[in-house]
Amino acid sequence: MNIGDVSECCGLPAKTIRYYEDIGLVQPARRENGYREFARRDLHKLAFLGRARSLGFSIKECRSLLSLYEDRKRSSSDVKAIARTHLDRIDRKIEELQALSATLRDLVERCQGDDRPECPIMDDLARPAPNEHPAPLMSRASSKCDNASLENRSARM
Amino acid sequence: MNIGDVSECCGLPAKTIRYYEDIGLVQPARRENGYREFARRDLHKLAFLGRARSLGFSIKECRSLLSLYEDRKRSSSDVKAIARTHLDRIDRKIEELQALSATLRDLVERCQGDDRPECPIMDDLARPAPNEHPAPLMSRASSKCDNASLENRSARM
DNA sequence: CTTGACCTTCCAGTGGATGGAATCTCTATC
DNA sequence: GATAGAGATTCCATCCACTGGAAGGTCAAG
């Protein structure tokens, strides 16, 4: 099978398939004319890769999964470990994005969205810093960011 | 102010600040010795950029936001439009990830995770295709992916 | 004078492809 | 046999937003 057929058949662009060969995920044979010749085994691997990538596994994880796929004596615990790591990563990402979403939604809702310049979104972006660990008031005097420091340092040279 | 101080003060790595200069987001002055000299205005811009990036806005969006930030006659509707587009993108991403998470969670839960090779995760990955649009049975005979086609095409040269 | 912190530039690499150019190779048709 | 067009090949560049590291200049303290 030529690359175009494989592409159509496993849903991966030909470019991607060449790329996968390049990074060693598949090793299709070559014909005399230089064309790649994909065997059933290559097709299976590519379909496997396509599915794994669509589930968000990284190429590195795909490599591991692929070697487990081809290992008859694999332990399902190894597969599960990779999947769980990935799942945890996804869930952490979801939480991050939900926090972002909440913040943005609040800002967007509070913004009038008219032709005047006043805007809570801008106010948030321009605000000094998200004081997660608010410093004691006295320590501000020695901050590198206040005006005095700025002038001093500007004048230093 | 030197880049190191700016870095500490606005929380962006020096490398990032240089990069932001490189792509034209800030234009700090230069001293005679070649060192960058950041003024208050640059500090504000960098802090703004740091916050905007931490909210997930792309550099391109940051560029737009920054020019709105410096435009006294801006319309808050322009700001809001950018933020809403971004919010929508985040929410779409969350949905995607939640679907992934659900699929993966199901697979992980069904996997024994022992020393035997049987594994629902592998079974899923190795499965032909996620038949979102299941083809009529008869059409499989002409698929490029069945054995006959494979052999034919392999034998063609 | 030396040390070490800080600054500079430039180049390369990350991940995972994707776009495009220039150049074969095959097949079909005239 | 000529030719057109599809499909294959390679290689190089590009995307995003940095980040790492090398090689070298500058500055303040001891």
Automatic annotation (TrEMBL), chains A, B:
This is Cu(I)-responsive transcriptional regulator. Its main location: cytoplasm. The gene is cueR. One of its GO terms (biological process) is positive regulation of DNA-templated transcription. Residues 118-157 are annotated as: Disordered. Keywords: Cytoplasm, DNA-binding, Transcription, Transcription regulation. GO terms for molecular function: copper ion binding; DNA binding; DNA-binding transcription factor activity. InterPro entries: CueR (IPR011789), DNA-bd_dom_put_sf (IPR009061), MerR-type_HTH_dom (IPR000551), MerR_fam (IPR047057), Tscrpt_reg_MerR_DNA-bd (IPR015358). It is found in: Cytoplasm. It comes from Stappia albiluteola. Pfam families: MerR (PF00376), MerR-DNA-bind (PF09278).
